[in-house]
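Here's what a typical entry looks like (Phosphatidylinositol-glycan biosynthesis class X protein):
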Amino acid sequence: CVTLDVQAACRDTAVTQELLKEGFHRDLLVKVELGEDAGGCAVAARTRLPPGVYVDPYELATLQQHNLTKAVLSPDVIDVEAPEYLARDLLLLLFLEPDPRCSRCFRAAVPVHARYHRPAEGTEEALVVLESPEVLLCCCHSRLSAECWQPAEVDTPCSSDSTGPCQWHSTKHRAAYEESMLRVPVGLRQHSSLVCALTLLTTGLCSGLILTAACKYGHFF
């Protein structure tokens, strides 16, 4: 009976994430509907980004300067030029803003970029799976139900602007969509010889044109 009472009291928190736009440069939109009122609490979504995608820390810093996005990346030093097979996972803590149309709803978006993948055989695209994020709450002036919310190990302040310590809490949630998939175009292995030959030919042709123009119009002393 106690278990049933606790389950009834802990209303489900729903999470939805969407990949907006097309191509290699997308926007990750995260929407959360809490199961209980969280007035005065900071709400965040913690998600692990696989090696196939990344958040540009320089772009993120610019967005935060204009108060368009608030997030924390770990690690904070990222090689944005690395291909998927040389990259590693990233941990993104995205601070959510209240949705004026819903008292228990929060949302935020952050630009994400796909990395180049190895050429594949028999397929022209690779799938990058984004798991459903974890919902976190930090309440400095109110208490959360101990049955519904558990302390989470998150070494991050309650907002991207503050530096003081903060105790975050997490809860189980239902994902409106269990996972999002990003389809990334990749080259075909059987075309590698042709691509190398055309690249070498184009490079040689352009180098010859530059050399010819330099000899014809250049002034040498």
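The first strand starts at residue 13 and ends at 20.

More examples are in the samples folder.
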